[in-house]
Amino acid sequence: MITDRGEAMFALQQTLYTSRNPTRRTLHCTRRDWIIDAIGRYGTGVRRALEVGPGSGVYLPTLTSAAHHVVASDIESAYLDRLVDMRCEHDTLQLVRDDITKSSFSDCSFDLVVCSEVVEHIRDSSAALREMRRILADDGTLILSTPQRYSTLEVASAVAFLPGFIQLARRVYNEAVIKAEHINLLTRRKLREQLAIAGFVPVEEWV
């Protein structure tokens, strides 16, 4: 069962790319377009791809077009249930409940792993990254995005939730404006350290 909070989070995800707030819309659309482009460059023709924490499924159509088989995993099966209709539309898509900090997937299971805006919700991001490296093929690719602690979006969000501002934002934009529950915001340096410890070697970076 999805709680009212869960329903609100889905509503939030669905408004990010069409938001009436130009800053919010531009930042999210720019990130989305970069990831879609990266999937096209690194994922086309791969055998198996995984998306960790697919949210509302914005990347799944691109992934199913690129890879022969796609798995979408989340620790909460209730969130995966919201993607059942998408699975029916794409017969190469599989939905799997899995905890990425102690994944049930076998070593080297995937040629491509996409993890967008997820690790900031995981307290032990180091464990998650180690597991992603374990289940990724030796020559595989990880496409990862996570907000930096002092990014424009995080600073703007902090301001938005000051007393008085949140009510104004909801009134002006008339859309979902709720806290995203980021419990593990990493600095760029810390993320690089965790990636290196997990065994990843960056090949490109977008800020």
Sum this structure up briefly.
The chain is of the alpha/beta class.
**Rg, nearest Å:** 17 Å
The pLDDT mean sits at 84
Described by the principal axes of the CA atoms, the overall outline is globular
| Structural class estimated from helices and strands | alpha/beta
Largest sheet: 5 strands, parallel
Largest sheet: spatial strand order: 3-2-1-4-5
Q: From N to C, what is the helix and strand string?
A: HHEHEHHEEHEHHH
Measured by DSSP, the beta-strand proportion falls in 15-25%
Output the keywords.
about 210 residues; alpha/beta; five-stranded parallel β-sheet; 9 helices; globular
Can you offer a commentary on this structure?
The chain has 207 residues and is an alpha/beta fold. 44% of the residues lie in helices and 16% in strands. The chain has 9 helices and 5 strands; from the N terminus they run H-H-E-H-E-H-H-E-E-H-E-H-H-H. It has helices at residues 4-15, 22-42, 60-66, 77-81, 84-89, 125-135, 152-160, 165-173, 188-198; strands at residues 48-52, 69-74, 93-97, 110-116, 136-145. The chain has a 5-stranded parallel sheet. Helix 6 (125-135) crosses helix 9 (188-198). The chain is globular, with a radius of gyration of 17 Å. The relative contact order is 0.14.
